[in-house]
Design brief:
alpha/beta, Rossmann fold, 20 helices, 14 strands
């Protein structure tokens, strides 16, 4: 679908408009200066330089503000700051040429019509037109050129090729919603896969592959250093999917959310670096963009408005601060996921609204004008496998939005799609907005980098949910096991707290920059004797503590075998 935008100027758009106006102004000054020098050097001898300079200065002062107003107006109307940002290559250059040409034609005509007594030097206008096109095109292509040079430099690294090196993959949180879909794809491709998971929802989530010969199961907590080191041995890559997912679930225990979603990830990444695991894929979310009327890409400003999104932003910053030539984190910002995997969820908008349409005969929409990018869980798993298989220089230290440009929809549009497929259901619009998030996302980067293209559409996903309910495979979509928040509230949070490492927060909090969550309650659960040994280090030496902790655990466990399934 096409991107539509309302004429709304945000702070980010205003900054771009000011930058373009300054570039136009600079081009006009250079054009006048070059014309002035040409007249002095090549013109008649009777021309006084002082008089000519005065005339050109008057011309500039009379006209520059008019040209700047015309420029930002025409550029905005041409989509420079909205949908035009998604254009690529020659088409983008053509749009710039058209807008710049129209700008100078209108400007030249009006100055000739209204101020014919002080006609603006035509040669200076021509030069300014050429320079404006060069400046605007260069500014917009600079990021692309920079990435091209960066990739070329990365290819000179003596790093192992992705195709030959990655055979063993550790999937943390592999029994979850995305993880259970990912396991099947990795095993089908011949990878040897190890899963580290608490299995809060039981083993049935991976029942389809549980007995696969290339699957190894480690039931453990990824906050536990012992479990991490055991699971990390012999691995070539890590896919980290473990987290408390969703705004309501995260709000149940804010301190626990920061520990699980952010602080523990640093420990896992440190272990990976020490054990020479080069590729580290982390599952983030497009929720980090918060609320915006623009079409957003990976370089857009982050505006998280929920604890879940804030925890993901913090983790992204932690991982990016750890980048080195031997450690390559890759951040995947997933759109809103729908569909079915081994672990079914009905706390996701498409799945939930479809279930309500089929079972309750109504589709309740709060607000409705909020934009969301959607992606099927199978496509989310596909994106991970493609990033895992991509040459390392292409994905090293990169952030990718994961989804489809064609699947940016408002909640109201989703409701209408469901209504077409379940015509007996009634759409009920509520004026109250329970969720303030609003973001449309551009996914060109992952498509261009690794060739990712989703297989599923929203209509197909809705039909999948309808079929699962009508065939009786889903008995009650309200069952707490289908909702992260309700399951954790009932029983899951107790198990998570029992595995919480109080020392982890104290240790890692001192090794990162201060964050908005420094005041979070610090847990001090019962500490295992072997972890206490690792912390016998002078107070304040947190860097040494972290390194010694990992090395002690690794020396003790490097000859051990992970537990059998």
């Amino acid at each position: 679908m096409k991107f539509f935008h309302r004429p709304h100027i945000t702070r980010e758009i205003a900054v771009r408009m000011i930058a373009d106006a300054l570039m136009v102004n600079f081009a006009l000054i250079i054009g006048l200066l070059m014309r002035y020098l040409a007249r002095i050097w090549l013109g008649p001898d009777d021309i006084l330089p002082q008089v000519l300079l005065r005339n050109y200065t008057i011309n500039y002062l009379h006209y520059f503000w008019i040209l700047m107003i015309f420029s930002v107006t025409i550029f905005y109307a041409s989509g420079f700051y909205t949908h035009g940002r998604a254009y690529r290559g020659r088409y983008k250059a053509l749009v710039i040429v058209q807008a710049v040409s129209l700008n100078y034609l209108v400007f030249g005509f009006l100055t000739l019509l209204l101020w014919d007594k002080t006609t603006f030097p035509r040669a200076a206008l021509l030069l300014a037109w050429v320079l404006t096109f060069i400046f605007l095109t260069g500014a917009r292509l600079w990021s692309k050129l920079w990435r091209t040079f960066y990739k070329a430099e990365q290819q000179l690294w003596p790093a192992r090729s992705a195709e030959s090196s990655i055979k063993n993959v550790l999937v943390i949180g592999g029994a979850g919603f995305i993880g259970s879909a990912l396991l099947e794809k990795l095993l089908d491709k011949g990878y040897k896969v190890r899963v580290l998971d608490l299995f809060l929802y039981g083993y049935e989530t991976i029942e389809a592959v549980r007995n696969h010969p290339n699957l190894e199961i480690v039931e453990g907590d990824y906050q536990s250093l012992s479990s991490i080191v055991l699971a990390m041995q012999g691995m070539d890559a890590v896919v980290h999917l473990g987290a408390i997912v969703g705004d309501p679930a995260c709000e149940l225990d804010r301190g626990m959310t920061i520990e699980l979603n952010s602080l523990s990830v640093r420990l896992i990444a440190e272990v990976a670096k020490i054990m020479n695991v080069e590729r580290f894929i982390f599952a983030s979310t497009c929720s980090v963009y918060g609320a915006s009327d623009e079409v957003l890409d990976e370089y857009s400003l982050l505006k998280p408005i929920s604890l879940y999104a804030e925890s993901k932003v913090l983790t992204e910053q932690i991982l990016m601060s750890m980048v080195s030539r031997t450690f390559s984190p890759v951040i995947l910002r997933f759109g809103t996921i729908y569909g079915f995997s081994g672990r079914t969820r009905f706390d996701l908008v498409i799945n939930l609204l479809t279930a309500k349409a089929v079972i309750d005969g109504e589709i309740t929409v709060y607000g409705g004008d909020q934009w969301r990018p959607f992606i099927h869980v199978e496509d989310a798993a596909l994106a991970i496998t493609q990033v895992l298989e991509a040459p390392l220089p292409i994905v090293h230290n990169q952030i990718f939005n994961v989804g489809s440009n064609a699947q940016n929809y408002t909640i109201q549009q989703v409701a209408e799609i469901i209504h077409r497929l379940v015509p007996t259901a009634e759409i009920k619009n509520m004026e109250m907005k329970t969720d303030q998030r609003n973001y449309r996302v551009n996914f060109n980067k992952i498509r261009n980098a690794v060739g990712f293209a989703p297989w599923w559409t929203v209509e197909e996903g809705v039909n999948q949910v309808i079929d699962m309910i009508r065939t009786g495979k889903i008995q009650d979509y309200r069952d707490p096991k289908y909702s992260n928040e309700r399951f954790l509230r009932n029983e899951g949070l107790i198990r998570l707290k029992a595995n919480s490492n109080g020392w982890l927060y104290d240790l890692l909090n001192a090794t990162i920059s201060p964050t908005p969550w420094d005041g979070v309650e610090r847990r001090r659960s019962v500490r295992k004797q072997n972890d206490a040994e690792a912390l016998e280090i002078p107070e304040g030496d947190y860097s040494a503590a972290r390194e010694k902790t990992v090395k002690i655990r690794y020396r003790r466990l490097e000859t051990s075998k992970p537990p059998n399934p």
